[in-house]
Write a sequence for this structure.
């Protein structure tokens, strides 16, 4: 039986698949409060022509709209790939207490790989991180996407 974190990460993986299917980098995110998804998102940078349209940013906006609050201090964010510096900053600002992510990001990871913004005690909020949940599945989707991109560039 899947754990609670695995259950919600599967929802984030479904969002990542939506990104993949639309030609976006396959990252998906969901925000959960009291056993319900209140925000979801997938990368839409290309479609929206917006460098801030990352899965986490879209999910945070949706959850904030749902709660009519900038504070998501009772929520958990599930995302298929380690957040970048922009998204990590937004997680801190939203006061999200727990971040669960899948694959580590060796190029832009800001939650332990290159930086650790969300656990930086110098900031006014520290986030608890749970990493590696469905990291293989998340990483496989990313590898498949970039292999497809490289093949289309060669042709």
């Amino acid at each position: 039986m899947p754990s609670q974190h695995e259950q919600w990460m599967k929802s984030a993986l479904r969002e990542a698949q939506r990104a993949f299917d639309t030609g976006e980098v396959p990252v998906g995110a969901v925000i959960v409060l009291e056993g319900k998804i209140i925000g979801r998102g997938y990368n839409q940078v290309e479609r929206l022509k917006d460098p801030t349209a990352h899965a986490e940013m879209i999910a945070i906006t949706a959850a904030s709209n749902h709660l009519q609050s900038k504070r998501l201090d009772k929520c958990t964010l599930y995302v298929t790939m380690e957040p970048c510096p922009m998204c990590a900053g937004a997680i801190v600002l939203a006061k999200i207490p727990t971040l669960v992510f899948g694959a580590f990001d060796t190029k832009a990871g800001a939650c332990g790989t290159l930086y650790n913004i969300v656990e930086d005690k110098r900031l006014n909020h520290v986030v608890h991180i749970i990493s590696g949940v469905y990291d293989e599945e998340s990483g496989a989707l990313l590898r498949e996407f970039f292999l497809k991109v490289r093949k289309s560039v060669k042709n």
Remarks:
- The beta strands are 28-33, 36-42, 76-81, 98-103, 128-131.
